[in-house]
Design brief:
The complex is a heterodimer of chains A (260) and B (389). With 260 residues, chain A is an alpha+beta fold. In chain A, 36% of the residues lie in helices and 13% in strands. Chain A folds into 2 domains: 3-205, Alpha-Beta Plaits; 215-258, no CATH class. In chain A, a hairpin with an 8-residue loop joins strand 6 (108-109) and strand 7 (118-119). By secondary structure, chain B is mainly alpha-helical. Chain B has one domain (27-364): Formate dehydrogenase/DMSO reductase fold (Up-down Bundle). The chains are: A alpha+beta (260), B mainly alpha (389). Chains A and B meet through helix 3, helix 4, strand 6, helix 8 and helix 9 of A and helix 1, helix 2, helix 4, helix 7 and helix 9 of B.
Chain lengths: 260, 389
């Protein structure tokens, strides 16, 4: 069973304590200026967006089948069984394919460092492994961000929509998006208003490339046989011609035929 | 001739100086200050041009070795060496460009031991690495011949066919895989370019560009070195180019038709203009030109068509890697001068190395045989003199 986060925007009061707790947990600096920044960056893994009296969190969705982990050539990004998508900076060579591949635009890069790393929320893997909730869920004063088993949280989210249908958009964001994510969102305003794409495929993205990649082991011996066979046939003609005491004519004849 | 050479030398020196300065900025200040890349747009021309186009422009290597060594089309033999030279230089320069683009270039070897077989990038890394090795072995006899070292030449000749077959398979894999790279982003890449057939398009267009580059190089060499390939060979390549382009064109438009995109290509917009620029350059103009017998039979006509094809598919690769991703990123990416300077220096180095190799190595068959022999003798004598050192 994997863990997940449920964020209910209707319960959020925009106190931004989750931002601060996240910065502390990940040893990032946090002050009023950073608190005012309304976007995720290499020094801000999660952000509470404000639109009049509505709020919405953004953080790594920690996909069930993450595109970033599937494209990483060195396996620096990984989906753990417990839920978090972790990052091993010692493996990363900085190709940034994860950033290009992520459907949510989550991974950020330390552009201004000579030896940069990818930066993103990794769903507090150490805390989760120790049976504790993520830093953001633990600090949340209203329970807007809730940590638990993914299946339980889905049930709870469905129940909340069922009991207060007028209060919510009838959609649990992250339930099916790109095959499901470990972060689930509820909102009273359409998700697009906070920049969440609702046109994402229900199928996990990695299958798109793996469908092609998985054919390679079959293709290599097949291609080898085919090319080897062609070589054998084309050169055998010459040998036969030579054995019969003629000059290999294949080419000249070919050329003559082609002459208009 | 002398003035012209001096002019090109000046251009070369300027490009190298600018490239050197940009290199210093890149490695002392990082990617941020040296590029216009950002979290919204993490891949720029170092990937879109240097890597995608670089690998594509080097495709003549596997196309020609397959035609001559596997399919036994002997009349193409004289152009194998120049195309192998181009391919070898191309791949070396792609690796150089990667060192600029990777955030931590000193970890470029990581995929060797840290494997993720689900990653297209991992597969590309392995293929490019192995194919560069294959190319250096295919290129080695040219150098060895120059120094008259017969023994290693014999060894390489002995394994040539498996080597060529391996090279063709590796090329097929990674030429197409550079297209597969973009299959993971159906929601980001503009539908003019996102297609399940991306790997097929990348592969077929690589063959077209391989043929076009061979025609282009032959004409360049005749201008600057007084050496060129026989016209009948170029005409032959031109005919094959027509077929490859036609197949690509039909497939491309069938794909657009079945995905319901044809109407969209007529609605004015940023992507639409660049789409048609690509199609005009890569398909319509070259096919119109090459369909004329007069053009197809003349060296000049073939040269113009080849240049158009090369420019057209460069536009295609830039459209896939840059234009097609701009609307999803919500911004326009324009490379910074440092990015252009590095790319310029890499291209200049490619031309210079090609020129040097052509001058000092037996690349073109037009060279007088007695001159080669004389030079080989002189070199062999030198080598022997120092052999005891």
């Amino acid at each position: 069973m994997s863990k997940a986060l449920l964020y209910d925007a209707t319960m959020c009061i925009g106190c931004k304590q989750c931002e601060q707790a996240c910065a502390t947990q990940n040893k990032l600096s946090y002050d009023d200026a950073i608190a005012a920044e309304e976007r995720q960056s290499d020094h801000k893994y999660t952000v509470v967006l404000t639109k009049s009296d509505k709020f919405m969190r953004r953080l790594c969705m920690n996909c069930q089948e993450p595109a970033c982990a599937s494209v990483c050539p060195v396996g620096a990004l990984r989906k753990t069984a417990a839920g978090p998508v972790t990052y091993d900076e010692n493996r990363c060579m900085g190709c940034r394919y994860c950033m290009v591949a992520c459907p949510f635009g989550v991974p950020k890069y330390e552009w201004n460092k000579v030896l940069p790393k990818v930066q993103k929320c990794t769903m507090c893997p150490d805390r989760v492994a120790a049976g504790k909730p993520t830093a953001c869920a633990e600090i949340c004063p209203t329970g807007a961000t809730k940590f638990g088993e993914r299946d339980d949280l889905i049930n709870e989210a469905q129940q909340r929509i069922r009991e207060n249908p007028g209060q919510y958009v009838n959609h649990i964001y992250g339930l099916t998006e790109v095959g499901g994510t470990s972060v689930l969102l509820l909102s009273s305003v359409p998700f697009e208003e906070f920049g969440y794409r609702t046109d994402l495929s229900k199928d996990p993205l990695p299958i798109l490339t793996y469908r092609v990649l998985s054919r390679i082991p079959d293709f290599v011996p097949l291609g080898g046989m085919l090319l080897g066979g062609v070589w054998w046939i084309t050169h055998r003609r010459e040998e036969v011609a030579a054995a019969e005491g003629q000059h290999p004519k294949g080419d000249t004849k070919d050329q003559q035929e082609r002459k208009p | 001739m002398k003035i012209k050479l001096t002019f090109w030398k000046l251009v070369f020196l300027f490009l190298m100086a600018a490239g050197f300065y940009a290199t210093v900025v890149r490695f002392t200040e990082g990617l941020g200050p040296s590029t216009n890349l950002s979290d919204q747009f993490p891949w720029g021309i170092w990937i879109g041009f240097d890597v995608l186009c670089g690998v594509m422009l080097a495709a003549g290597g596997f196309t020609l070795t397959a035609a001559v060594h596997i399919f036994n089309i002997k009349r193409l033999r004289p152009i194998v060496r120049p195309t192998i030279l181009t391919a070898f230089l191309g791949y070396v320069l792609v690796c150089v460009a990667l060192m600029f683009d990777l955030g931590r270039p000193y970890r470029i070897w990581h995929p060797l031991i840290m494997r993720n077989p689900h990653s297209v990038m991992f597969e590309v890394a392995y293929c490019v690495m192995l194919y560069t090795t294959v190319l250096s072995l295919e290129f080695a006899p040219i150098v060895l011949e120059r120094f008259n070292l017969q023994k290693p030449i014999k060894i390489i000749r002995g394994i040539l066919i498996p080597l060529v077959i391996g090279g063709v398979i590796l090329s097929t894999l990674h030429q197409s895989s550079l297209g597969t790279l973009y299959l993971i982003m159906p929601e980001k890449l503009h539908p003019f370019w996102y297609s399940p057939l991306l790997p097929v398009f990348f592969f077929i267009s690589a063959i077209a560009v391989g043929l076009a580059m061979t025609i282009f190089e032959s004409s360049m060499s005749s201008k600057h070195f007084g050496r060129q390939l026989e016209l009948p060979i170029l005409q032959e390549l031109g005919r094959v180019l027509v077929v490859v382009l036609s197949v690509y064109g039909v497939l491309r438009f069938e794909d657009l038709l079945h995905r319901g995109m044809l109407k969209l290509t007529l609605q004015p917009g940023y992507e639409m203009y660049l789409f048609w620029l690509e199609i005009m350059l890569s398909l319509i103009f070259p096919l119109l030109l090459l369909s004329q017998r007069k053009v197809r039979m003349s060296a000049g006509g073939l040269y113009v068509a080849a240049v158009l094809v090369v420019l057209g598919f460069i536009t295609n690769r830039l459209n896939v890697s840059i234009t097609g991703l701009e609307s999803a990123a919500g911004m326009h990416y324009v490379p910074k001068w440092t990015e252009i300077a590095v790319t310029g220096a890499i291209i200049a180095a490619g031309f210079a190395l090609f020129g040097l190799a052509e001058k000092y190595l037996p690349i073109f068959p037009a060279e007088e045989p007695h001159r080669v022999v004389e030079r080989q003798r002189a070199m062999a004598a030198q080598v022997l003199e120092h052999a005891g050192d």
